[in-house]
Each structure stands twice: as structure tokens, then as C-alpha cells.
Amino acid sequence: MNIGEKITYYRKKKNYSVNKLANLAGISQSYLRDIELGNKNPTIEFLSYICEALNISLKDFFDDPVFKDVEFDRTND
Q1: What is the average per-residue pLDDT within 29-41?
Q2: At 58, is the secondary structure helix, strand, or coil?
Q3: Which string of DSSP letters, residue by residue, matches 13-51?
Q4: What is the pLDDT of residues 45-74, one digit of tens each?
Q5: 43-63 per-residue burial string, b: 16 or more CB within 10 A, e: under 16
């Protein structure tokens, strides 16, 4: 899951519209929409504003349990 998809997931989980989240985060609606669509990548600063508006930490945002148990095959390194 990419950053935009995660933001969309958390936004919908909070039942926020794009406009509401953008207003709470202090960013433009068009910028948030571009992030969610994968057209732009936010800086850590802007991502922290979004996470704060969603009431989640950056750590929780990036802590993805799907990848915790993945073992990488390093035999071809």
C-alpha cells in the first residue's frame, strides 16, 4: 500500500471527506487529492500535518504489520 492509499484508508476510516481532512491538516484540497491519487508525494512535514489531523502518529502510519513478517531472500545479493 502506498502513502496515498494509506491516507485514503485512514481518512475513510475517520469518515472524513477530502475537503474536511485538507482543512484540518491546513493543506489544499487539490494537493491532498493529488497525494491520494499517487500523483504527488508529500514531504514529511506535510505528512505530519495529515497524520495529526487523522490523530495518528507518523510511526503508526508507517508501521505496516503486513511487512513485519516478510523475510527477504538475500542469497542473490
Answers
A1: 96
A2: helix
A3: HTT--HHHHHHHHTS-HHHHHHHHTTS----HHHHHHHH
A4: 999 999 999 999 999 898 866 544 444 444
A5: eeebbebbbebbebeeeebee
Instruction: List own/partner pairs for 65-68 with CB under 8 A and 24 or more apart.
Output: 66/1
Length of the chain: 77
Asked if 32 contacts 4 with a C-beta cutoff of 8 angstroms, the reply is no
Backbone angles phi, psi at 53, to 5 degrees: -65, -30
Question: pLDDT value at position 63?
Answer: 86
Closest CA to 58 of 36, 71, 42: 42
